[in-house]
Design brief:
Blueprint (H helix, E strand, L loop, with lengths): L2 E4 L5 H12 L7 E5 L2 H9 L3 E4 L15 E5 L6 H10 L1 H15 L4 E5 L1 E2 L6 H10 L1 E4 L5 E2 L1 E2 L1 H13 L7 E5 L5 E2 H12 L4 E4 L2 H10 L4 H15 L10 H6 L7 H8 L2
Parallel strand pairs: 1-2, 1-4, 2-3, 5-10, 6-9, 7-12
Antiparallel strand pairs: 8-11
Helix pairs in contact: 1-6, 3-4, 3-9, 7-11, 8-9
């Protein structure tokens, strides 16, 4: 097996993927960690990984950064300008166009169409506020949403990289095995804490203000509050697939109930 290059290696997703690769038997010297912030890359270097500066958003991305790598985990950035540009065309359309462009090159690929991070929808502050007030605010209008932890998504990416031939030229919808309504989340909160919690519809403006108050980056405020939750009311995120369970095992996937139990332990 040749070397694996990881874009965004110092980020949450990239870092978790690297951890799973190392646990899966990949030698540190066989991982090329591409980074933007050198101070964040130091721990990776200490682990024995080869680190290379590569910031595609600023143009500091010469082809030589991939020298020696025969596999690449590419994690798209979520800077505010990228999100704004994607919103003008429709997120789904941009992703499909990107997939077609990659296919047209003839290079082998595996596409992981990741769903939404649990971390941005079931925040600790969100849930504790719901228990304290008895109200869980939502923009979903009763529709269900599937979300997956960043760790489980990174686990899936590592699983593909550990046995690439099994996933050659395939596309996977990485979703939770089950979608949940906010009413179901409220019921889980009530069950675990013993305090009654009900749902209440809120506004995009209030949601964005809340995300800002807990330090969520501006780009994710836009994505969560404007591009995502408004679409959830139309059932945009109700679909599920078995791909994640097939890649990492159903029992491995962390459910909302497990997350809530950890928060209120």
């Amino acid at each position: 097996m040749g070397k694996i290059a990881i874009v965004g290696a110092t980020g949450h997703f990239g870092g978790k993927a690297i951890d799973f690769l190392l646990k899966g038997g990949i030698k540190p010297s066989d991982i090329i960690a591409l980074y933007r912030n050198e101070s964040k890359a130091a721990p990776l270097k200490e682990k024995g990984l080869e680190i290379r500066l590569a910031d595609y958003q600023s143009g500091q991305y010469p082809p030589s950064v991939f020298d020696g790598a025969d596999k690449l985990l590419f994690i798209p950035g979520n800077d505010i300008e990228n999100v704004k540009q994607k919103s003008e065309f429709g997120m789904e359309n941009v992703h499909v166009a990107t997939e077609h462009a990659i296919k047209a090159t003839g290079i082998p690929y595996t596409f992981l169409r990741n769903t939404f991070y649990t971390e941005y929808f079931l925040t600790e502050k969100d849930l504790k506020q719901a228990v304290d007030t008895g109200v869980l605010e939502t923009l979903s209008q009763g529709k269900k949403i599937n979300f997956v932890t960043r760790e489980d998504m990174a686990h899936a990416a590592a699983a593909v990289l550990l046995s690439p031939q099994d996933h050659l030229n395939k596309t996977y919808d990485i979703t939770a095995p089950k979608a949940y309504s906010y009413q179901e989340i409220a019921e889980i909160l009530t069950e675990i804490t013993g305090k009654p919690v009900k749902t209440q519809e809120t506004t995009i403006e209030k949601r964005v203000a809340f995300l800002d108050s807990i330090g969520v980056p501006k780009q994710f405020q836009l994505f969560d509050g404007v591009l995502s939750q408004a679409k959830f009311a139309r059932g945009w995120a109700e679909g599920t697939s078995s791909a994640l369970a097939d890649l990492i095992g159903k029992d491995t996937i962390k459910s909302p109930k497990q997350i809530i139990k950890e928060i209120f332990a």
